[in-house]
Each structure stands twice: as C-alpha cells, then as structure tokens.
Amino acid sequence: MPTDLSLYQEAGVNAKTAASYDWLLESLYVVTRSTCAPEPGARRSTS
User: Fold this and answer.
1) Is residue 6 part of a domain?
2) I need a labelling partner for 17 at 20 to 30 A (CA). Which of 3, 11, 26, 32 fits?
3) Strand intervals (E) in 1-47
4) What's the domain count of the chain?
5) Could you tell me if 27 and 43 are in contact, meaning their C-beta atoms sit under 8 angstroms apart?
6) Alpha-carbon span 17 to 2, nearest angstrom
7) What residues contact residue 18 under an 8 Å CB cut-off, 6+ apart?
8) Are 43 and 29 spatial neighbours (Cβ–Cβ below 8 Å)?
9) Could you say which DSSP state residue 44 is in?
10) What is this structure's pTM?
11) Residue 43 covered by a domain
C-alpha cells in the first residue's frame, strides 16, 4: 500500500480522496470476483 499512496501523492491527490478511491477499487474488485473468475495478478483484499 505505501506504493499506492506514493502514486496518489505524485498525482496530487489528497489523502482522503486517495482513501475513497482505494475503497472504490476494492469494492469493484470484490464485485468482479463474485461474478467472474479472478484475473492473474488481480488485487486481493487484505481485510
């Protein structure tokens, strides 16, 4: 996750927006995983 955060900072996105975006990505991943076969290298939830 530190790598993701540094990417957000480089893009000039504030921490709150970055957290919301990360939550959105996780939500989309969970929905995709429940309806499709997971892709190689897909993000995995750590929670």
Assistant:
1) yes
2) 32
3) none
4) 1
5) no
6) 15
7) 4, 5, 8, 9
8) yes
9) -
10) 0.36
11) no
